[in-house]
Structure formats: C-alpha cells, structure tokens
Amino acid sequence: MIKTIIEPFKIKSVEPIYFNTREEREAILTKANYNAFTIDAKDVLIDLLTDSGTSAMSSNQWAGIMLGDESYAGSTSFYKFEAAVVDITGMPIVIPTHQGRAAEKILFSIVGGPGKCFISNTLFDTTRANIEYSGAEGIDILCAEGKQPTVPAPFKGNMDIEKLKQLITEKGAENISMVIMTVTNNSGGGQPVSMANIRTVSAICKEHHIPFFIDACRFAENSYFIKLREEGYAHKSVLDIANELFSYADGCTMSAKKDAFANIGGFLALRNPELAVHCRNLLVITEGFPTYGGLAGRDLEAIAIGLREVLDENYLQYRIRSIEYLTNKLIAAGVPVMQPAGGHAVYLDAKAFLSHIPVEQYPGQALVCALYTEGGIRSVEIGSLMFGKYDSDGKLIPAAMELVRLAIPRRVYTQSHIDYVAEVIIEVFEHRDSIKGLMITEEAPLLRHFTAKLVLAK
Ligand SMILES: *Cc1c(COP(=O)(O)O)cnc(C)c1O
C-alpha cells in the first residue's frame, strides 16, 4: 500500500498563531488600504505571503548559530559557507551578501546601465527593479506553455529558445549584459526549467560571448523536478543534478532566504576573477568585508548547514508533495489553479477565478483581499499590480497573467493548516460573484505593490 508522505521532521519548538474574527479582519483590511503588505503579521492567521526568510530552521542550524564565528575578517563560519556554495555550484568565487537583491544590485551596477539589456525566462520583481534602476532593460521570454496557467506541462519555466536567438540578432550580442535563468521560475508559477533548456541556452550564450547566470534561489526544488521529470536523471542524486545545472553558468545570484532555510542572507558566486574584483570593491562600500558581506557569522553558519540539508531527498519529496496536495484539492473543487503544481507555491488564476473583474481593477489583488477576509490567509498578487506599466496616455499595460501566489514556508505548516487553506479558498470560490474590483489611489514609481494604497472600485 502507498503510504502518506509525512513531514520529515518532528516539532521541538512551537510558536502561537493568533485568531481574529471576520469583522476585525474587514476593519484591518480597510485600514491597510487593501494592501496585504501593510497588514501586521499578528493579524494574520496563516501567512503565505512568501516563502522568503520564513523557513523553520533545523535543530542543527540553531546549534550552528551558537558556533557562529563573529570575527571581522577570515571567520571560520565564512569558510564553511564558502565550502557549501563551492560544493554545490562548482564556482570558485563566493561573495556573501545580506540578501539576494544585494547580490543583484552589485552585479547589475557593474554590468548594467543605459543601452544594455538583460534577457530572462522571467525576472523576479527585485531583479527587474535592480536592472531598471541601473538604466538597463529587462526582457522576459518565457516559453509559450508557461503563459497558460491551467495547461499542464513538465517544464513551464523554460526559456523560449527561438526568441532568444531573435533577440540576440535584434539587440546585438554586445548590448546584452547577460542572460539570467530563474530556477524555479518564481514569478511564472514556481515552474521548473529543464536541464536540456539550460544546456541549450548556455551553448547559445557561449557562441555569442554573452555571460549566462542562474538566479538560483530554488535550485534544489528545480533539481528535484529534473530528477522526477526529465529523462536520464531519475537515478542521479540531487547534488549531482545541481552540479550539472551550475556547470553551464558563468555565475549565479542566490537568496539564502529560500532553499537555504535561512531567515536572512544571500550570495553571488562567479568564475571570472576580474568581475569578482569589481564586485568585491562595491561589496566593501555597500555590504561589508568580503568574508562576511552584510551577514553575522551565525547567519553564514546557518546558511552553510541549510544548503546541505535542502539536498535531502526525503525533504524534497515532502516539499514538492505538499504543494501538489493543495493544488490537487483545489483542482478537484474546480478552482482555476496553475498546473502542474510548482515547487514552492500554489498559484490561483485570478483572471479565471474572478472573470467579472476587468484587469484594470486588479482581480488578483481583489482575490488576495477576499482570502484574508474569509480566513485570515495572507497571499500575494503576481499580476498587474506587481508588473503593470502605463502607456503614454496613462492607460494600464497589464501583466501577462493575473496570479495570486500562496507561498508555502518551508517546514512551517502541517497538513491540517493546508486543509484549512483549501477550505477557505473553496469557500471564496463559491461566493466569487460578490467580490469587487479595486483601484489604486497612491503608488511608488518602482515596486509599487509593496506600498500602493487601494480602494474598492465603483
Ligand atoms: C527572493 C528572490 C530574489 C531576491 O532575493 P531577496 O533575498 O529577497 O533579496 C531574487 N530572485 C528570485 C527568483 C527570488 O525568489
């Protein structure tokens, strides 16, 4: 008999969650200007805003915190961190940063700038913002199947190879700062990229002397999907698969707040020593000395341990299964959800879920608000509030998809929490016709979704 895939851990320390009523949540939401980022964490029952920095650390990681060497230079913890990154990526140069975006900022300040462009399967929001802030342009060329939320395919994070070739001809290789492959594709549904796609993109980049980088936040989840779905990888270890994946790249940026189970941290890993000199020069003025880069020794220690723990296949099996479990419950109830399940989150297709709300009234954000009011669940819109632009007449240019992401923190919630989440979503789905759209009253020029204020549309 096939047995339930259980949480591969037992609980040593617990943290309370707080309950409130629907009336209280309605008042909280109004006060928060219909923006879930401005709701206080204490007012959230199940927090699926992000899987970033929200992981439960293991007893080994907590033990590592006590071993943290806080020496300013040459800390023992740095060498453990460096060894873990080198073992996984095979890249000899490891630069610690306080988050993934700090690694991006340093790298793009050097290789970006006006007239340059960056090509990706899909750039994450901070990645795109750092590219645009440097004056460069970010271009997403996701494969066609990746843009159809409810049509299943094994590798919906793949890059469109034909478009890549076209863009190189159009833009000129010398104007392309780099090609960045995001694994898994966070903004595109946490969908994996195949090894074949990575290999082909890498070969094209080599031929045109364009640097090829990996945005590696969820490299272990992506590697596990390759093991499950790509021919020839079933018998390889996840570490071997990760090694091969990184072997095709010139460098990578990573947020340790994702697959490294850390609450803070990131890094930049490189092969090119000249580029590393420039990066370290910026590092010392923005982050810190090269052996700590904006992190405490104890953080470096926790990341070093987390990077090895995430390769445990019992963990990855449970991780991927828990996302699939929620996705399948929603599919069974007829809820429009991204298929197949991604690696770290469940994505609701808000355009189909709230088909009566036009994109100009942000159906994704309306759904985020409804899930909070109904069940105290916090999620995030990944659609036109996050990625929408305006044309010269001030008319909204909508995002390709209107998604709501329910990101599952690693090792934090149990199956009954997830059952509750499914019940709330299904309840909202049954009453979807009563949900109203929203309009923006205030917004920032970059990353507006973090601080935008909204009201109910008339
Ligand atoms: C989280 C994330 C980043 C940025 O990392 P931070 O640690 O949040 O700064 C970059 N790319 C992807 C794909 C991410 O998921």
Portion of residues in beta strands equals 5-15%
CATH topology of the largest domain: Aspartate Aminotransferase, domain 2
Question: How many strand segments?
Answer: 16
Poorly predicted segments: none
Q: For the largest sheet, list the strands in their spatial order.
A: 2-8-7-6-5-3-4
Determine the number of helices (DSSP H or I, runs of at least 4 residues).
Answer: 16
Amino- and carboxy-terminal Cα gap = 55 Å
Helix proportion range: 25-40%
Shape: globular
Using the coordinates above, name the CATH class of the largest domain. Answer: Alpha Beta
Provide structural commentary.
40% of the residues lie in helices and 14% in strands. With 458 residues, the chain is α/β, with parallel strands linked by helices. It has two domains: 22-51 and 313-456, Aspartate Aminotransferase, domain 1 (Alpha-Beta Complex); 59-309, Aspartate Aminotransferase, domain 2 (3-Layer(aba) Sandwich), CATH 3.40.640.10. It has a seven-stranded mixed β-sheet with strand order 2-8-7-6-5-3-4, with helices on both faces. It has a three-stranded antiparallel β-sheet with strand order 9-14-11. The protein has a two-stranded parallel ribbon with strand order 1-10. The relative contact order is 0.16. The model has no long low-confidence stretch (mean pLDDT 96). The structure holds pyridoxal-5'-phosphate. Pyridoxal-5'-phosphate binds at residues 52, 99-101, 124, 126-127, 182, 186, 215, 217, 255, 257-258, 266.
